[in-house]
Amino acid sequence: MILDEYTNHHQVKKTPFWTDYSGIRNCDNLLVTICVINTHDLAPANKEELKKYYLSLKDLRHKNMISILAVESSNDCLTLVKDKAPDMSLAAYQNNLSTHLEIKTFLKISIEIADLLYFFAEHNIIHGAINPNNIFIDCNNTPILNNFLHYTLLNKNLNELTNNEIINEILPYISPEQTGRTDQLIDTRSDFYSLGATLYLLLTKVNHCPIDENPLNIISAHLANQPPFPHILGKHIPLVISKIIMKLLSKNPGARYQSGMGLAIDLKKCLNQLEAENLIENFELGQNDIFHKLQIPEKLYGRKELTDPIREYLKITGGVIDPHSAYLLIRGLKTFELRMQRMNESGQKIAEYLEKHPKVKRVYYPGLKSHPHHEVAKKQMKGYGGVVTFEVKDDTGYVLDFLGRLKILNIGPSLGGVESLITHPATISYYKSTKQERLDLGITDGLIRLAVGVENVEDIIADIDQAF
Fold this sequence. Notes:
- By secondary structure, this protein is an alpha+beta fold.
- The chain has helices at about 45-60, 90-95, 105-120, 150-160, 165-170, 190-205, 215-225, 230-235, 240-250, 260-275, 305-315, 325-335, 335-355, 375-380, 395-405, 435-440, 455-465, and strands at about 5-15, 20-25, 30-40, 70-75, 75-85, 90, 135, 145, 360-365, 385-390, 410, 420-425, 445-450.
- The protein folds into 3 domains: about 1-85, Phosphorylase Kinase, domain 1; about 90-275, Transferase(Phosphotransferase), domain 1, CATH 1.10.510.10; about 325-465, Aspartate Aminotransferase, domain 1 (Alpha-Beta Complex).
- Helix content is about 40%, strand content about 15%.
- The longest helix is centred in the last third of the chain and has 21 residues, at about 335-355.
């Protein structure tokens, strides 16, 4: 038994979902939390699904989450051993504030949580219970996320709507699709709604939906009520931050942020503006936001041997083009030669600039003499194209910070358009591949691809320069 490896375990908290005990690991005197989940009323299939979920978390490590150290199951319970969380929850932290939270502190906390949600999405993990009581703040104001909640436990306990803890601590933060009253599937975007509800409270000291003794009123608010924009409740709240929170709180998952990376980049833009200019100007949200899953209509019926090829075909071709898109495609072809001339010229200048930059390790562009196939390209091509690939520090965090500071270049995996687009293949195009698989293809964590558009090339170079 797991508990035999720990001493001095005593109950510290009992919830509708589990009971927490404090304990000390015998081998190294590490202070831990032992979480015992009651699975007695769950069907065997749900028990097995629950066990797989927590086992999938066991090997995950991130500075902003409580690590699960061990998992053991029996007929009536599932036991988890976790690192001990900091003493102060985000709810207590917010209650202790004598005035409103500083915007800079708010942004730093929010960015770390957004980065964590991006990490979860990469591992196909849904937290399921993001709220102020499950986020803890350490002495450095670092947010630490605790208490992953699988939907089988939530569905079981939502039936016990008389429980005060569920009404006060859980219901105000679940997404509309988690209520079971919509036809939307639960995916990683459910966590964004919960984060929006949490950030709304943190910034305004007001819940986005009323805490009501009748839990059905809370559920109804999730489904239908639109809370006031945060900047209306607090003049210290910049409009763009207010819009970010309301985007997170969209009832439709498709209208929310689609990735933690897209959210983090917008929040970092706010923080960079605030630190540089002491104000945050409005900008279009979600320009760098991409949902990392093929979205197929939920009601696709048929035998597996027939529907699977359709899914694979859609991955390659996309949907059927509509008449207006066809018209735009024909119109775009009329200026294609002019755009290619501009891209060739700009691509060459940008590649030469990057090759001389001290923070760039290597540039891949056939127009450069350093390219291994430059002589072949000279014979075959009149111009060398608008795609410039370069390598910087081999660190995903460093690259994402660099991308977040760009003001003209937008993040996107496409190419050949009027607008310049920049992408990080390791986290966008090849996010499903393992690191070794990417390295086998020559894709390092520091690799960046730029598809040059028709903007003024000096503006593009200046934008890259200031982002470094």
